[in-house]
């Protein structure tokens, strides 16, 4: 097998190459088995690199931010607060977005949206998320 990368030192550029080698090599096998590979950040020194949060999950499984968003919705339902419609597309500045996650550690902009056309993830504040994705009726159980 011939390699297209010639890595002789560990630096930010070569870390990106190493990450791509691992993804290219494993994604073929994982996709055939309905799995997805997730990487975290990398730490390195002069001769090694370590990736944090190396995780393999089911292809149809929710991401961590989506799990947190669903948990936030359950909390809001239990306390009679306005919940979010995860199926609807919201509009901001003439562009369509979907709600894809929640970061409970972010105070000012905890909600994560993805642009429908062109991709790209962005953080938004709670009042913006409620305006774009808030469900009209609040049901208290």
List the SSEs and their pairings.
Blueprint: H1 12-32, E1 35-38, E2 42-44, E3 49-51, E4 55-58, H2 64-78, E5 89-92, E6 95-102, E7 111-115, E8 121-124, H3 126-133
Antiparallel strand pairs: 1-4, 2-3, 5-6, 6-7, 7-8
Mean pLDDT: 88
| Rg measurement, Å | 19 Å
Task: Please provide the ordered H/E string of secondary-structure elements.
Answer: HEEEEHEEEEH
Give a quick account of the main beta sheet: strands, pairing sense, barrel closure: 4 strands, antiparallel
- Find the count of extended strands (DSSP E, 2+ residues): 8
Low-confidence stretches: none
Q: Report the principal-axis shape.
A: elongated
Percent range of helical residues: 25-40%
Could you tell me how far the N terminus lies from the C terminus, measured between alpha carbons in angstroms?
60 Å
Instruction: Estimate nothing, just give the exact number of structural domains.
Output: 2
Task: Tell me the fraction of residues in β-strands, as a range.
Answer: 15-25%
Q: Give the structural class.
A: alpha+beta
Biggest sheet, spatial arrangement of strands:
5-6-7-8
How many helical elements? 3
């Amino acid at each position: 097998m011939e390699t297209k990368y010639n890595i002789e030192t560990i630096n930010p550029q070569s870390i990106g190459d190493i990450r791509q080698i691992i993804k290219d090599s494993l994604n073929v096998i994982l996709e055939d088995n309905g799995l997805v590979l997730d990487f975290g950040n990398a730490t390195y020194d002069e001769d090694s690199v370590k990736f944090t949060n190396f995780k393999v999950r089911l292809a149809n499984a929710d991401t961590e931010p989506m799990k947190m968003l669903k948990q936030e919705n359950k909390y809001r339902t239990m306390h009679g607060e306005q919940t979010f419609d995860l199926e609807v597309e919201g509009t901001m500045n003439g562009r369509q977005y979907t709600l894809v996650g929640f970061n409970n550690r972010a105070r000012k902009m905890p909600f994560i949206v993805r642009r429908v056309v062109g991709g790209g993830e962005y953080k938004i504040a709670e009042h913006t998320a409620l305006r774009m994705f808030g469900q009209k009726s609040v049901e208290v159980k």
